[in-house]
Specification:
With 182 residues, this protein is an alpha/beta fold. The chain contains 5 helices and 7 strands, in the order αβββαβαβαββα. The protein has one domain: Glutaredoxin. The protein has helices at residues 2-15, 54-70, 88-98, 111-116, 153-163; strands at residues 27-29, 35-37, 44-48, 76-81, 104-106, 124-127, 133-137. It starts with a helix and ends in a 19-residue tail after the last helix.
């Protein structure tokens, strides 16, 4: 029985996404009509987006607040839609309706999601100025019933990056809907 459990754990670990040390050097089309590079010399937050995900919708206001707090400090925010149904037009309409102040990038074929290990909406990576991945995981520890006292994984990582410190928690759990990238 112990050997079967060990074999299952090894098999599941082999299926876990590999998280790279750096972001791919690519440009993606976006809802603002431009193409955006993932790496551009600024600390960057990339959050994987799915318009149908209630977890993502619940975090929209928190994400907007983080952008208001950290963009003036030089941090760039991008949403990436890697879903098979992603289109610039649909995501532009959705971004306007939700009041997003940052572009939604379209990742046709899910190549960026695959390269960064994204399997769920709300999966977030923080890149340093050189495109090194310094954080990956969720926005916080809540799914869709938000409280006033979350463990704010992303905020803490950004505070560390802006202060020039090593990120104290470089990895955290992701709570969101499975991305439909096939």
């Amino acid at each position: 029985m112990v050997l079967k459990r060990l074999a299952l754990c090894v098999a599941l670990a082999a299926c876990a996404p590999v998280v790279p040390a750096r972001a791919p050097r690519v440009e993606l089309p976006a809802t603002d009509g431009a193409e955006h590079a993932l790496v551009d010399g600024r600390p960057t937050v990339i959050v994987f987006y799915a318009d149908h995900c209630p977890c993502f919708a619940a975090h929209a206001a928190r994400l907007a607040a983080l952008a208001r707090d950290f963009e003036p400090r030089g941090v760039r925010f991008l949403l990436v839609d890697s879903e098979v149904s992603a289109t610039v037009e649909r995501d532009a309409a959705e971004a306007r309706a939700r009041g997003y102040a940052f572009p939604v990038l379209i990742d046709h074929g899910g190549r960026v999601a695959s390269a960064l290990g994204a399997e769920y909406a709300t999966y977030t990576v923080v890149l340093d100025r050189d495109g090194r991945l310094v954080y990956h995981g969720g926005i916080d520890d809540e799914r869709h019933d938000l409280t006033s006292h979350p463990d704010e994984y992303l905020r803490h990582a950004l505070e560390d990056v802006v202060a020039g410190r090593r990120v104290r928690r470089p990895e955290a759990e992701v709570l969101g809907c499975a991305l439909q990238t096939w």
